[in-house]
Amino acid sequence: MKIKLNPEIADALRDGMPVVALESTVIAHGLPYPQNIETALKLEDIVRENGTVPATIAVFGGEFCVGLDHGQIEQLATDRDIRKISRRDLAIAVAQRLDCATTVATTSFLAHMAGIQVFATGGIGGVHRGYSADVSADLPELAQTPVTVVCSGAKIVLDLPATREWLETHGVTVLGWQCDELPAFYSRSSGLEIDERVETAAEIAQIAAARDAFGLKNAILVTVPIPTEFEIERSELETMLADALSLADKNGVRGKEITPFLLAQMSERSGGRTLAANIALLENNARVAAAIAKAFAERSEPPAVAGG
Ligand code: PSU
Ligand code: MN
To answer: What domain range is 157 assigned to?
Structure first.
């Protein structure tokens, strides 16, 4: 399967310049219009302003696209028929030439295939609350695909302790970006452990290089707390979330619909505060990812053959 890389990204990768992958499910299903398109474009700008090349990833006409044009981003933001795809859907998407938004699982997979090492998102999927058989395909992908994923932990709608245990069991390295606890998406702390606190992007590049040197394939999760001014207290969130969860249950919302449903419910119930928080953490994570991508590029040797 060939990946469709836009020329700017192809050049950057060939020259060993830093590239940051961005996902598309957050555009198509994670945020409402018009905040979704504004955020998608803003994230690309942030990545650029920080000296790196953005690579938003999605599937169009069954082709794996790394680096999208404005029209494609607009389609993701407005077309309600865009399918949210995880690993299990990749073959269907290609065979049937579908237009699809990629989750953390599929964005990680495609970023790695394209040779991109760093990927920024909001919150990863995980083990669902009250229904522990629903485990996001994001988790097994992180266990087998050696990318560095910059996020604010798992989305708060999930069972965070169970998600944290899953990551530990399956060998995903969890780093805390200038923090001592696993962030909880809209909140800065969860009471859950990280494996190591890191202060700088260079430390992360060192850890990733060590992983590669002995051939481990796990992802490294760099967890970044939401900027303080946008934080929403856990206690305040729990009531809203409990109501949203019982409504989901009542309406029989399941499977890949559940995460978008709960995020939209939380936003409504908080008067848009969780939406503002989600956007703030996405922007901040893009900034941190750019710094990490630069540290990776500085460590790696210049390409042996100059590409012209
Ligand atoms: N981060 C956000 N909002 C989102 C997501 C991430 O701030 O909507 C998306 C990611 O694409 C992630 C997906 O992979 O939610 C998880 O969905 P599920 O629980 O159905 O696996
Ligand atoms: Mn699921």
So the answer is: 3-298
> Which numbered atom of ligand 1 lies nearest the CA of 258?
20
**pLDDT at position 173, please?**
98
CA-CA distance, 246 to 258, in Å (whole number)?
12
What does the chain come to in residues?
A: 308
Q: Residue 139 and residue 56: Cα distance in Å, rounded?
A: 21
204, part of any domain: yes
196: Cβ contacts below 8 Å, ≥ 6 apart? 173, 175, 176, 207
Residue 87 lies in a domain: yes
Indicate the top mutation candidate among 24, 127, 138, 265 to test ligand 1's pocket, ranked by most ligand atoms within 8 A of CB.
138
Is the bond into 34 cis (omega within 30 degrees of 0)? yes
**How many distinct structural domains can be found in the chain?**
1
pLDDT at 300: 79
DSSP 26: I
How confident is the model at residue 109, as a pLDDT?
Answer: 98
Helices (H), 102-200: 104-114, 138-144, 160-169
Q: How far is CA 161 from CA 35, 100, 194, 196, in A?
A: 30, 31, 12, 17
Question: Residue 271 burial by CB count (10 A; 0-12/13-18/19+): exposed, middle or buried?
Answer: exposed
What average pLDDT score do residues 166-176 get? 98
Q: Which of 82, 103, 166 to mutate to test the pocket of ligand 1 (most atoms within 8 A of CB)?
A: 103
Lowest mean pLDDT among 30-39, 137-146, 249-258, 272-281: 249-258
pLDDT of residue 196: 98
Task: Please tell me the pTM assigned to this model.
Answer: 0.95
CB–CB of 68/37 below 8 Å? no
